[in-house]
Design a protein that fits this description.
- By secondary structure, this protein is an alpha+beta fold.
- The protein contains 27 helices and 34 strands.
- Strand 28 and strand 29 form a beta hairpin.
- Helix 19 crosses helix 20.
- 42% of the residues are buried.
Length: 831
Amino acid sequence: MTEETYPYQTIEPKWQAFWEKERLFETDTSRTEGKYYCLVMFPYPSSMLHVGHGRNYIIGDVVARYKRMKGFNVLSPIGWDAFGLPAENAAIKGGLHPKKSTLANIATMKRQLRQWGVCYDWRREVTSCLPDYYKWTQWIFLKLFEKGLAYKKRAAANWCSSCQTVLANEQVVNGACERCETPVIQKFLEQWFFKITDYADRLLLDLEKLTDWPERVRIMQRNWIGKSTGVEIDFPIKEEEPLRCFTTRVDTIYGATYMVMAPEHPRLESLIARSPNRQEIESFVERVLRQNKEERSALETKKEGIFTGRTVTNPMTGKEIPLWVANYVLLEYGTGAVMAVPAHDQRDFEFAKQYRLPIEVVIDNPREPLEASRLEAAYIEEGILVHSGPFNGLPSREGMEKIADDMEKRKIGRRASAYRLRDWLISRQRYWGAPIPILYCDRCGILPVPEKELPVLLPEEVSFKPTGESPLKDVPEFVNAVCPRCRGRARREIDTMDTFVDSSWYFLRYLSPKESKRPFDPEVVNRWLPVDQYIGGVEHAILHLLYSRFIVKVLHDLKYLSFDEPFERLFTQGMIIKDGMKMSKSKGNVVSPDELIERFGVDTVRLYTLFIGPPEKDAEWNDRAVEGSFRFLNRVWRLLKALSASGAPKESALERVVPDEKGKVLRRKVHTTLKKVTEDMEGSFRFNTAIASTMELVNEMARTLGEDPRTLSKNEKLLLREASEILVYLLAPFVPHLAEELWSLLGHKESIFRAPWPEYDPSALETEEFTLVVQVNGKVRAKLQVSAGVSEDELKKKILGESAVQKWLNGKRVKQWIIVPQKLVNLVVQG
C-alpha cells in the first residue's frame, strides 16, 4: 500500500454540498412514527467557536446521524440564544451595536457548524433577539401575569456592580457573578419575579419521572429546591402583625430567648420606623448587604447583629424576647426570621455569647445532664425535653409532634414546608433583552400590554452605557405610551427580561418556527415532545433546566401542552480542558478549530474530539495527539483503496461464503465490533470505546489483506468486502465525510445515511469449542470441551453430569455457581 493521504480538502465540501442539495436532514414533522427529537442546548452566539464548544455539537450530530441510520425520523434543529450581556458589553467597548455584532457572530458560527459537517434542519433556525421570536417570549410573560405567576415587588436583589444589573440567585456562584466573577452585593430595587416557588413541590417530586437524567443533575436540582419540613410559628408584636418564622426544631421553642431577622427582611423598614437608633440600624444593614451571602452564612464567619428596639412574644412561654437583625440570617430560607435557641443551635450560641443574650437548655442529654452556664457549644442532638411546660420528659422527636399538634390546635402555628428555592427574578437593568410587556398608568395602575400589540419592539437607537438603570428610560418614544384602559398617558416598563426566559421555551418554537399567530403549533408540539435526547453542559443543571421545567409545567396547566416535563433523556458532556483550565478567551487557552481543519480536515477534528475520553467527563486537549486521529483515517483510506484495487466485488449483496480459520477470525472480529459499537452508541454514548473498537477492526482487516492484495482468494475478498462495508457504517456517525466517500468507493449510489444500520450475526461471534476449567470449592476437578453457544442451563447440566465432578459433590448441595464465561466455573458446595 502506498502512503497516500486522503484528500479531505475536496471530500469534505463535496459531501456537505451533497447533503444540502439532497436536503438530507430536513424533517417531516407531520410523520411522527419513529420520531426522535435530538436537541443540543441553545447556543449563545459568541464571536467564534473553539474546539471546546465543538464537543457539544459533534456529540449531538453523532447521535442524530446514528439514529437516522437506525430508521428513526430524526429532528435535529438549531437556533441562537442571542440576547444577553456579552454583546451589550462589547457594544460599550467597541461601539458596534449589539444587534449587528450578534448577527455577525451568528453568521460566523453557522459557517463553522456547516464546516464541521453538523447536520441540522436549518429551516427551523430561530434567533431570540429578533421580534418574531421575542414577541412570543413576551406572550409567555403575559400568560404568567394573567395566572398570577408574574409580579413586581421591592426586594433586596443580587447586584453585580460590574455588569450593573441584578442577578437571579442561580446566577450567583460562590458569592460572585457567574459571568464576570465580581463579588455580588444586595441592593433594594423594584423587581419583576416569576413565582416558581408555587411549583416547588412539583419540580421536586417530578424529578422521580426523569429516570434517564444523570443522577448528579437530579441531586443538584433537588438540593437547589431544598425542601425542609417543620412548623411555621407566629410571634406576636405589639401594634403590629405577628412576625412569622419557620423551624425544623419546634421541640426547642421553649428555649427561644431572642429572635433574629435577615437584613433584607421586607418588614424591617416598618418595624424600625420609630426606633431611636434607626440610623444606626440602617447603617448596619447597608454594611451587611455589601457582604456576599456565602460569607455571611458560613459557619466560621463572625456573627454580627444589632438590636431593633422591638420585642416579640414567645407564643409558648408568653415571655417578651428581643428582636435583633443579624448577618447570619438570610432571606433565602424559610421566612427570613429565625427563633434563636442558643443552647441548641451553634450559630445562635455564638451570637448569644457575643451579645450576652440568655441561653436556656430545653433538650437534655440523657447520658449527661446539661447546664447552660457550662455549655462550650450548642447541644444539637436529640434528647429529653426539659423546661418545656407540659411536654417535659418527652423524647425530643415525640415532643416535636406533640408541640406541633398543640400549636395547630391553638392556631398559633402550623406544619409547613420551606424551600431554599426563591422566586425567579427576571428583571434586568440593561438594554439587550426582551422588553417586559407592562404599562404603568397613574389612574389604572399596572397593566399588561394587550396581546394584539405584541411585540413591544426594542428600540435600536439607545445609549448602552450602564448606569444601574435600564438605558431604555432615556428613549421617550419607547417609554411614552397610551393606557389601553382609560386611553390616558402611560409609560412602559423599562427593564428587560433575563435571557433565561428566552431559553426556557425555544425547543417548542423549533416545531413551527414560522408561526405568526401563536408561539407554536400545539398539535405538532404535543406529538413530538418531550425531547427524546437533550445534550448540553452540566453547568446548566440548575439554571436553564429548572426554568425550562417550570415554564413547561405552566404551559401544561394552561392547556397548551399535554406533557409537563420537557426533556425525557439528558446527557451532560464534560468540558474540554487546556493547560489544566476550561477553555476561555480570558484565560488565553482557546484552540481554534480552523487551523486544525486546514491541516488535518474536519473528520480528524471530529474523531479526536470524540476519542479524547468518555464524553461525560472533562478531557485535556492535546494538539499533537490530533495527528494520531489523522494517521488512523489515512490508514482506513489506504486500506479500502487497496481493497478496491484488489478486484474485490462491488456488489452489496454478499455471496454466502464458508470462511477458513483465518476468515473466521476476521468475521468474528467484524461482528464482535459491530455488536460492541452498537451497544456503545445506545444510551451510554461511549464514543471513545466505540472508536477504539473500530481501530482494532482495522488492524485485523489489514492482517487479512496482507502485503500483496493480489494473492487474496475469492472468499477472502468477499469477507473483506463485508468487513469494509460494516467498517464504513461504524465510522459514518463519527467521520461522515470520509464515510460517504468510502461508501461511494464501495459502489453505492445513495448516501450512507439513507442505508439501514447493520445487524450483527450471532453465529459469527461463536468459537466452535473452548476448554472450560471446573473447580469445586476453588480446586480444579475437571476440564471439559464446551460449545461456544452453550446456554447457562445447559452448561450446568453438563457439569453436574460429569463423573469427575459428581464424586466431589457426593450428595452435597451446590450453594453458589461462580461462572467466568468461556474460562472456568467454580462450584461452592456445603453439606
